[in-house]
Write a structure and sequence with these properties.
This protein is an alpha/beta fold. Helix content is 45%, strand content 16%. It contains 28 helices and 21 strands. The chain starts with a helix and ends with a strand.
Amino acid sequence: MLLSPKAILQQYWGYTSFKGSQESIINTLLDGADVMALLPTGGGKSVCFQIPAMAQDGLCIVVSPLVALIEDQVSNLKAKGIKAVSITAGISLKELDILLDNCIYGKTKFLYLSPERLEQPLVQERIRHMNVNLIAIDEAHCISEWGHDFRPAYRKCAVLKEIQPGIPLIALTATATSQVVLDVLANLQIQEAKVFRDSFSRSNIIFQVNEVEDKRYQLHRRLQNTTDSAIVYVRRRRDTLDLSNYLNTKGKTATHFHGGLSRIEKKEKLTAWLSNTVQIMIATNAFGMGVDKPDVRMVLHYQIPESIENYFQEAGRAGRDGTTAQAILLTNKADCANIRRQFLENIPDLNFIKLLYRKLCSYFQIAFGERSDEVFGLNLDRFCQSYQLPTSKSWSALRLLDQNGVLMLSLSSQQNTTLKITAPKASLFHWMSKHQKRAGIVQSLLRTYGGLFDFDTKINIPRMAKKTGVPEQYIMQTLEHLHRDEMAVFTAHHNDLQISFLTPREDDATINAIANRIQGLNRTKRSKLDRMLEYAENTTYCRPRYLLDYFGEKTTKDCGQCDICKVKMGKTSPILSLEPQILGVLEGGEKTSRGIAAALDIEEKQLLETIRRMLEDGKLILGKQNRYGIKH
């Protein structure tokens, strides 16, 4: 053993003690036993495998589902001076060969890879020759068909136990029901693993479901008097931009984030939010995994999520520093009916999946009976517009094709950039002499890419940024400048997905082979939505207790903080007790019911019955523009 776990924790992470089950998990792994760890969001899952790996010779193999999550963890390890590499989609065979060799012969401590990469024979063969001390399967709920983010490639992670027999394995997740846990253990062949289950309870988070008529107004109202960091989750990409613009017009600082943004845009927006330059992040659920921001004081869901798992994971991004935070779900009478209707509309049946699959093959010119080994970039919105397909339903169908091994889907956002220099060399050099700040970039392009004068050449923008030491955005601006001045033809197409076809094209026969499984997965989705709607409509059961019960954690103690507990404990104002408060507010002049609610910091609907009675009793008058005043 190189250093003790506590010494490593203090040296690299700056903490003097572990929390929860971390220390027990680490010691169990160091003793050579397998582990299944169920820790809440913010419970420090990564430390559970990073520290035992650091405490021994050799490297740790980490399987993780998202490129963003992999990049974040690798970046954090490198910042601590720990050697870590990642193998994701988009790297060349030569780069892959070098990285794998470094893991065998170098001093690499962590190898992060996607489950799809693990399926490659080359990767498996090289892993056999590595000095592996630990195997970590992150987001292990992806293994289970009963999980909320099932991925078929995850069901093949057990191959690591065959390639590296006797090496301890840890499976980690923050959202798993008892059924999912049993499925994960069986699939990974670690039924004898020691299961650690820290309480999913987040006592510092106040859970609320608020029924409101005007969501936009209520969103602003909850954010207007605070400068604390917040996340607002929405279901649609266009809502992220719409609500961020709205809040900015109201004097708040907000930005938006979704899977369709370019890598550069995502980085800029995330940096602004992490540095508190921007207070509020309006995002789809593509945002948040792997993002470590402990001071988020509010997570607000603007619409009802599709499952308890998604909701709990997203809400858990509030208050990771242990300080009081809020998890608010805004809803109204129409919401539950709307989401059920939208959900059913967006569940693709077999006929739609067959249609989409045929269109996808045509789009990438894959002939019947053929399978391409190419990784294709896809802009989902553009594809759907081309064939007049509904975007949400198409996304659901692509997910099902991915989950059933027909294709491999990645959310890795890429800019497909090509350049061809059309001006004579003398003209280009004259342009460079006039634009000396950009000349170094052009020179580097000429040295890096042969044939720029002869044909369209694909440009790797991140690679050029690293090589020249200038920001990616400045390189893009330089290429646009060359195009504008007619020195070159520059094209940039943004793809938000990467797709690999895993089976030969057989059209309907391809889908018929997986029809039963698709129907089963759709039934599971419906069941999960039913439980989420039950949570949203519940008016009698403590909200944290409901959530814990869903994940198999039984407790008889109410939280005393959620909206339901406050009603039970009489902490909400009785109707009559509001009268003096309303009169006090109106001493300063007439106000609408919304203005009174804002002044009292309560829900508008709590006022309406009291206002009606005060009007009947002659204590209030209703003036112009629905403004209430005191009747003298």
